[in-house]
Write a structure and sequence with these properties.
mainly alpha, two-stranded antiparallel ribbon, 10 helices, 2 strands, globular
Length: 250
């Protein structure tokens, strides 16, 4: 089977080697994306989570197919990864705040809202995945599409498992937020502008990743405490403004 645009499908050693490499890449890199999807559907009712995961992962992968052909050029543009890293940090804090089972903080989420968050975060985080699959395919469009398509069941299964575990073990939400903080830090520190001006060493990059991973949880916790205090103050002020029983009888 051969065509000018689709590539050649020959069951030779090179083809099978590339195919195996793409499967391994998908298995290794599915973790971060599964975390963002699991946290994205965390606030959905349990009956809607499967739909949210499937639609979110499907929409993200469809966009990956298109963006893969341009991502290698996009990553060379200044500030692209820096902005993407900041977006991931913002999403990480948002999902942490909505996901932690604390009173007065968690908000209901619709499938549309969950899919929007999943797509934005997944595309932002998937640059390494797209580059790795594109490199392993060696220009073979069949292998490229196979690799991107294969990531769907890997991510869907992993994120479904994580979303169920998050209900039982809330500590996973903390770990997931930390993972997203690390990913955001990695993107920021590998942006061409940051590399040019800071020339960060491995130690510096890892330090920033750890600091941001912890900062996501700290900022989320501080925001939740501030929100809780504001709500209590508002309720106290509202109760104080209500007329007392003695006022009503006069």
């Amino acid at each position: 089977m051969d065509s000018a645009w689709f590539g050649t499908i020959d069951l030779n050693w090179q083809f099978l080697s590339d195919l195996f490499s793409i499967i391994i890449i998908d298995l290794i890199l599915a973790g971060d994306n599964a975390v963002i999807i699991a946290m994205g559907v965390r606030s959905l009712p349990p009956k809607l989570r499967s739909k949210g995961i499937l639609f979110g992962a499907g929409a993200a992968v469809l966009l990956r197919v298109v963006l893969t052909f341009f991502v290698s050029q996009l990553l060379l543009i200044n500030f692209i990864k820096l902005i993407g890293g900041l977006v991931i940090l913002w999403i990480a804090v948002k999902l942490f705040i909505e996901g932690v089972p604390e009173e007065g903080v968690r908000e209901a989420t619709t499938i549309a809202q969950a899919i929007r968050i999943i797509v934005i975060a997944d595309i932002t985080m998937s640059t390494d995945n797209m580059l790795a699959v594109a490199g392993a395919s060696h220009g073979n469009v069949f292998l490229l599409l196979f690799g991107l398509g294969l990531s769907i069941p890997f991510v869907v299964f992993t994120s479904s498992l994580l979303s169920m575990l998050m209900d039982r073990y809330p500590i996973i939400i903390y770990l997931g937020a930390a993972v997203l903080g690390r990913v955001g830090g990695e993107m920021i520190m590998t942006d061409p502008v940051v590399v040019k001006f800071l020339a960060p060493s491995r130690i510096m990059q890892y330090t920033v990743e750890v600091v941001l991973a912890v900062s996501i949880i700290v900022v989320g916790k501080l925001y939740m405490k501030w929100t809780t205090r504001s709500e209590r103050a508002g309720n106290h002020a509202g109760n104080a403004s209500l007329p007392s029983n003695s006022d009503k009888t006069e």
